[in-house]
Amino acid sequence: MDNRGGKCMMSKNPKETNADKELQKALKQDTASRAAALDISRSFLVQAPAGSGKTELLTQRFLALLATVDEPEEIVALTFTRKAAGEMVNRILGALEMAEGPVPTQPHKKLTYDLASAAVTHAAHRGWEKSMMPRRLRVQTIDSLCGSVTRLAPVGTSLGIQPELMDRAEEAYAAASGAVIGRLEEEGDLGDALKLLLERLDNNFGALHELIQKMLTAREQWKRHLPDGSLDEYRAFLEKSLCRFINQRLKKLHDLMPWDICTKLGLLGIMDFVGCNCPEDSLVAALRGAKRFPDPDAKDWDVWRGLLELLTTKSSNDWRKSFTVAVGFPTTVKGYKEMKAAAAEVVGALAGEKHLLEALCILRTTPNPCYDDEQWEALKALFVVLPAATEELQQVFNGQGQVDYSEISSRAIEALARAGGGANLFSPPLRHLLVDEFQDTSYSQYRLVELLMRRSSTKDDGAEPTLFVVGDPMQSIYRFREADVGLFLQAGIQKRIGDTNLEELKLKRNFRSRPDLVRWVNDNMASVFPTEHEQDPLTGAVTFNTSVDTRDICDGPIIRAKIILDSDGSGKKKEAEMVVKLVQRELRRSAMQQAGGGSATTTGILVRARTHLPSILLALRTADIRYQAVEIDQLGERPVVQDLLALTRALAHPLDSVAWCGLLRAPWCGLSLSDLLTVMPTRDRRAPRTAMWDNIQAALAANADECPLSPDGRARLQALADRLAPALQKRGRVAMRALVESTWYCIGGPACVTETSAHVEAREYFDLLDSLEDSGLSPDFDRLTESLGKLFAPPDLEADASLQVMTIHKAKGLEFDTVILPGLAQQPRSSTKQLLTWLEGGDPASGDHLLTLMPVQPRGAKNDSMADFFGAINKAKEAFEVQRLFYVALTRARERLFLLGTMKPETSKKIPTGYLQKPHSHSLLKHLWGGALTQLVEKDLKAELDAYVEKTREELEAAGILVSDENDGERDTQDSGSEAPDCEIDARIDIISGDPDDDLREWAEAAERNIADAPILHPPLNQYDIRRMPVGSMPVFPKSDDEANAREGTLHLAGEDTPPGARVATDDMEVAAESTVASTEYIPRHAASATRCAGTVAHRMLCRIAADGVKAWTPARVIKGKPQYELILRQLGVAKGEAFDAAVERITDALLFACTDDVGRKILGQHAEQGSEDPLSGLVNGEVVNVILDRWFVDKDGVPWVVDYKTSYREGSGGEEFIDGKWEYYRAQLDRYAVLLAAKRGVDPDSVRRCLYFPLMKASRVW
Fold this sequence. Notes:
Helix content: 40-55%
Strand order of the largest sheet: 17-18-16-19-22-15-25
CATH class of the domain at 39-140 and 421-507: Alpha Beta
Distance between the termini: 70 Å
Radius of gyration: 35 Å
Number of strands: 30
Shape: globular
CATH topology of the domain at 39-140 and 421-507: Rossmann fold
Structural class: alpha/beta
Largest sheet: 7 strands, parallel
Strand content: 5-15%
């Protein structure tokens, strides 16, 4: 029985038997590879496809090494992200902890158990302290390792004391670029070089400034390409490398040519015929007297060019369809007809050879293997300008006492080279190196690995170091940051990295996706990727490595597609609506599954670029669907930041009417449009220009009967004006950040945002404002706007992980139950030019390092063969990376996959043909077009296409553009640009139904099953409604300085101490204003400190512990959670440093205290009736109050408790007095909570226990 095609069928077909044999062979190969990988005496290069369990394999290798080394620090594992490093550390620590428990039954877990047990025994023998193991495991990112190297070798790196790292170094790059251009008038080489480059850029100073700045951001990639000796020798090296690159292209072409077919069809005779009969200046003249086919060498260059001219056309880069006298077929020569027919037969035979045409067209762009004088002079100019720009950048770094990651990386490589390798620099010496995601290494990172593995003969103790690199060339998608998959391929070809010999292993099993999804990807992507014969390190052509499924087979289609006909420009909107529909369906599916006792499911919306998301995000927000988005929403597009920007502009420029309009329409004022027009400046150019602030004061000064404002508008403006007046008086006298932040608090800004993430966004804006101002004067708003465009809003901290939106690049390493891939037909952005471009690689035959450079092309230049050659290679690299990007997207799915896209109808001279346009050659959809999906799509869209054709023709006829013909209604089937040939129906893929009632029927069925926790379908939000605070709800100024000090004047994030009166709901707005600041004085910077953010993290983790139950949180688990605490701190904007490390330790100590303290264990334990972060509404003293209880429960004695976490922290003495003060301050608030909880439960409020819990202070107050 075979159950691989979506349905079961009995067969004894020998073909299937062979397939079964191949399957068993692949499984044996996988088993053997995994066993070999644990031989710690050997070094390996492991190819691990998506879902193959490479992290577990790395963990097992690490545990095996841990059982043999003298010290844990002798093992170093490198990853590319903190998340990956944290996951590996957690797995290692989890395995060591598991070794102290019962033996698991699953084979792979038992293997990990045995390896961990051996490591634990060895650790006890060596006397390693168990509590210190988390600190001694050297699992690091590459950036972190480079930082460690520079700290270990301050002299070797010339850095001295470790400088501070820049998070955003764009300002430094811009300053250095401007400084070097400012030396244009200098006499000497630098001035002449700058003038030459400006001439190539048509004297565009702005373009040169941007290009130099761009080069500085990636200088670790090109600094090694600058000559350090004779320029003549360097030119010879570059030209020799170019020649060998050309020979590689010729070798590929030579191998692709089916010479046996060419010989059989008489191509040699045709070559001689056209060579003898073509014009003398024709390229095919080189074919005259041909006795053999050309060799893959530049000496036969002219013959190759003649062959190219004979077989293809230059204008369209396509196979030649007509043979004329221009290519050697004059009608006056005897036998020309027979030769033309023979030539057409040859072309017809070659047209079926995949990738041959592409290789031939690259040959057309291949230049002569030498630089002309103009190109070399431009390169020499770059050899002067780029080092000068680097020196200027160093001066900027020295002045600020900071450096960027690129500088740390470069200095670390220099230090390792001087030290003679990692074994000589680290103590204890590095003996074993593991590298994850090796396919994403750049040349500088590859060099780092080589140096880490180099050993000095003076320290050779006989122990051979080992290298274990894991990756998947099919998932190399970071070329934009100079990741080069060719390095992985080259290591596989040469079986070595530096001085270390490697054995190659391939994993086959896929543990992630359901079998039919694995097989569908195998079937469809194997034909997309190059064959093994076509694999090429230079262009990144990677062979597909099939996976073997391991899970149970499920019936039915698992891939569903929907291509939307975009005939009127509304395709993106319709696609976004379809995405929302699918998300709602998946959220209901998750709720149904949870109601049935299962776990929640996750859905990922993955796109190729952020620019493909705006319509989708708008549709999700309109449908009131919360989502987590990582680096998707630009900070400047967030509502709270837009309001703050309007406030900043209004305070800085009273005459900026646009900013004042934004200020008055923001929620803290919410002025109606009619009232806004009343205070707008006059449009009469003859009248003197007035500021809106003056108009506001004039309107408020008028008598109530004469005031043009409505009563509501007058009240709102009066409340706002009372608070803006002091701020405007201090304009120019205090720092802009202080002025804007305190004013925002004063007018009730924090009360206008109901989401925790909005407070974080506001703080990031204040920090940015602080970094851009040089004095109390107005900031540079151009720089502010530009900087906002480069920053991203933090993820929605209140959204769970059930729906996540991200780019495919960000999804690398993640997995989801359901994956939705919209925008499949979208085109990529075009690449931008650089001052210096390079081709770098190894010679497959000799292993020699090859490099050739190209300067920026002169503006408007044409027929530059060097630029065409570089462009063709880069175009091929981009095309192959698109294949890999699509593979990564498809393999994120565990259970279901939805493919969405839009396509336009094809037209000819504005007349519709009745067919779809072909997908763009670099779109993801291109890789699925032409097979079963094409037939399904065309069948699905046939009726809609026919209706569009009929409607358009009627409109053209009515306009007199088209004359009706009796055959108009019939589609021409002779020239179908997109119609696919008949192919076997694939039961695993289906078209998404367009019936809008599907979801409603599913919901009705769910309601009948009484699924109470199914998500509610929210009605669309009115985009034109204005959110605003009710009149009179603005903050009230405190009456005294003591009251002002009591309020602390700080930003309140979720989980922090919130003053009484917060979270009060009204009819006009979800959250009413809260009194948070005293005056427009500067808000203390500790509001954004690491300590305050530590409180936020601690609060969030306490909720998590309460949900899991405190018994599940052992001290070991709390300690293992440090990477998670670090991640959240980073999301909250806390920079690395001493304060960051102290915050992590403070969080850990607080959670350890909460999990071991008697009161904490009672609060966080499991109870029959309990809740965390539960909203509660009711009447208190005649007021409608809406609050959120941090924690409530009913203990075993039936006593209800209400708990409020207070994450304040006070260093030094006076802690008890501080806590007593807090208790006195918040006592009334807890009493209100108790009244609400008592009303809900129908008990006396006095029976409710109140608790203020201070985990950071390790204290509590219960009454």
